[in-house]
Amino acid sequence: MSVQKYHGIFYQDNSFSQVEDTLAVEVPLSISINRIPFTVTMQTPGNEKNLVRGLLFTENVIRDISCKPELEIIEKNTSGCITSVNVCVSPELVLTDFSGKRNVISSSSCGLCGKTTLEDLDCGKVQNQDLLNVDFVNEMFLKLNQHQKDFKQSGGTHAAGAFGIDGVLLSVQEDIGRHNAVDKVIGELLNIGLLENAKCLTVSGRISYEIVNKARSAGIPFLASVSAPSTLAVDMAIEAGITLMAFCRDQKLTIYSNPHQLVIPNPNELVASGRVKESSLCQKT
């Protein structure tokens, strides 16, 4: 299962309606080698054997091209996706004494990569008492675009921006990696003493768990992107108390989690109008 349908609230021209979007599935995969924890990486379910073999080869852990290690499935989640595997291989073929302390970056570039077990993860809840006017979101992206100097010259960089609850721009940073741009923004806010003022984080790329986790770590309750979220990003945003908005372009957006933190029409009115079903508001189907 590589995709899954989620409900959201679609906003355009001061009008709200329920939508059902297809999102890419993102799940953590815990990898052990001969029962020794190696790492947790993120993936779209499927082809785990190829993923693990390629990862171990490119990270110089198993370089013997003739080696065909056995992949033992240790655990699956409630959806049937593989979440934990063990690689059974002759110890002499393991070139790196990783000892469960991997710190390399995998292809998903996510905030989970580099962890050795799922128990290492922590997702606290962001405390928030503020309401964000949904109309400010479009203005935030206009301001973000105005500051994307590197992108205008190269077309090859991502941008992240931090804004106050009133839509005031606090920081904009660019980087070839979207996660790096977010880290730069948070770093600048820390350096200038404005992190507590940051209420909304905007990003120019897709939203994976990594980006949600960085917003959570910084205590930022609103997260918005011009692109799509992953399923795990939505699930974690719901748990973390973060309002996640995606496809924010052309004066429209889709709300996937915690819509009660936005200044929007009364949710009860939306339900009564038939445009939003209370039972499936911002939940997966």
Task: Characterize the structure shown.
This protein has 285 residues and is an alpha/beta fold. Helix content is 25%, strand content 30%. The chain is built from seven helices and 14 strands. The chain has helices at residues 48-58, 135-146, 149-154, 178-192, 209-218, 231-240, 267-273; strands spanning 3-12, 15-24, 27-33, 36-43, 70-76, 82-88, 132-133, 158-163, 169-175, 200-203, 222-225, 243-249, 252-255, 262-263. Strands 2-1-13-12-11-10-8-9 form an eight-stranded mixed sheet, sandwiched between helices. It has a four-stranded mixed sheet with strand order 4-3-6-5, with helices on one face. A hairpin with a 2-residue loop joins strand 1 (3-12) and strand 2. The radius of gyration is 20 Å and the shape is globular. The protein starts with a strand and ends in a 12-residue tail after the last helix. The active site is at 110 (cysteine persulfide intermediate). Mo-bis(molybdopterin guanine dinucleotide) binds at residues 247-252. Pfam families: FdhD-NarQ. Belongs to the FdhD family. It is found in: Cytoplasm.
Considering the chains and any ligands shown, give keywords for the structure.
eight-stranded mixed beta sheet; 7 helices; globular
